[in-house]
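User: Can you model how MV4 sits in this protein?
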Amino acid sequence: MFTKVLIANRGEIAVRVIRACQELGIGTVAVYSELDRNALHVRLADEAYALGGQTAAESYLNTEAILDVIRRSGAQAVHPGYGFFSENTDFARAITDMGVTFIGPPPEAIEVMGDKVSSRIAAEKAGVAGVPGTTEFLNDSSEVVAFGKAHGWPVAIKAAYGGGGRGMRVVRSEVEAAEAFDSARSEALKGFGRDECYVERYLTWPRHIEMQIIGDTHGNVVWVGERDCSAQRRHQKLVEESPAPAFPDEIRQAMGEAAVKVARATGYYNAGTVEFLYQDGDFFFLEMNTRLQVEHPVTEMVAGIDLVAEQLRVAAGEPLSFSQDDIERRGHAIEIRINAENPAGGKFLPAPGRIETIVPPQGFGTRWDGGYESGDEVSQYYDNLVGKLICWGEDRPTAIRRTLRALREFRIEGLATTIPADIAILEHPDFQAAEHSTKWVEDRLDLSQVGVEPVAPAGEEAEPKVRRDVDVEVNGKRFRVSMFVPESSLVAAAPAGGRAGATARPRRGSGGGGARGAAGSGSVTVPMQGTIVKVLVEEGQSVESGQTVCVLEAMKMENNIAAEVAGTVKEVKVAAGDSVGSGDVVVVIE
Ligand code: MV4
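Assistant: Here's the modeled complex, given as structure tokens:
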């Protein structure tokens, strides 16, 4: 096993990998941008090296800087996490040439799976079908029309070198074909620099189900379990779960075997995910992700397997620590991605900023894989995933209830998050009945009522509460009621002219304070029980309205007690050290 691993990433996934290394006794090397100098992954790692730069391109994607840190730190292997260098074969080869292990699949497999056409051909060679369609590139829109007539409408035109839905056009009838073909091509050219397109049947209500596989360098490849990632918006997954609901076990077995066949056909090792579309009992190969994915924990929770630890083992040349027959899946797991985005009105506007307070939920079956703690900054320059909440339950209804409980318990102050949208998804009868699809969030889920005001921090210190007793009558019965209210509200609620304004120090942003009513009263009273620590006026002295006449210490705070009217001090009723009660007159002004 390695003794030192460099984690070429940041945020929650860097934290996730560091934790796995620590549990295996492996030393950890973090890298960081200027903005991440004191980020959680840096705080947790054994060593940390600056990459310089702020944007991802200047820092986490700076190959030379990372190669330099590998040399200086003596790391024997690099875990790329997801994103950044995770599917970059130049990087994988560069470090391999230095004698450093890339914790991931062979570069040849990354290349084959790197575009839709070669991956689809590879899957077909392995005997795994994609959505019925062509693997030849389209020359003109008449071929789209011919395909539609032969296989039925709608059809999808897809950019061969595209991704994330860009360059995809749905064609519902012959008349739409020409324009759709042109716009798919131009979007593909703009987005990916190549405009080759192909056509396939368009599935109108599919689910996105993906299969986790892992292999070693000894020829073992196993499937660990599927994840349903249908609840997504604009190709950003919001909720993932395992097992896929309403998914028969024979299909699971067949999908698992299909995924293993695809992996074997490309000489795959390490962790990978084969994506399928599933509709009406049929599944079709979509693409393969040649990396550890964000949503890997749902599989871990159901299978009881630490996928990152296993990645480290197989990268070190060890055989997989389990066989296909050893894998048992139990219960149901749901992952919620919590992003710093404001889902108000379904807009999901990025909401980077400082997390004033983050208190993740706890309890049975409740896991938090986060990248930040209270006081940390979610930068606009990087992915705004704050972390992932993963809940496990005996069955799907239990897991849904637990996830909802945990989401409602979650406290994040200082910025807006996707939590209200996540709650709306999990509460929805369509989701609970597993009647959703990849289009459900955008087409059916109504988020117009979801409004999020970022929760403001509670302030440096909680405002002291004071007791106030009032008499109330309920249905003719008299009750004496004790209220425990913030001082500021007490002052604001005081009857006009009744008492002097009290100014608490340190002063808080809002609230009452200050004298109320122009008339004011000559009898200066204290608004709460406490001790007079200073008397600032004497009999016969003239005072201004608003002038402090004495200082009252109450609830460990000093409060200036001010005159409400200008005049001459007729009587001083207290001295320093005196105890006073709420409403006591301390000074009389004429
Ligand atoms: C499809 C499809 C329906 N029929 N292909 C979108 C992104 C790309 N990776 C594949 N995508 C789709 N391909 C056919 N023939 C529906 C989608 C799709 C989708 C797929 C997976 C996850 C989310 C999605 C959201 C919208 C559309």
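A couple of observations from the model: The mean pLDDT is 92. The chain has four domains: 4-103, 132-201, 208-443, 523-589.
User: Helpful, thanks.
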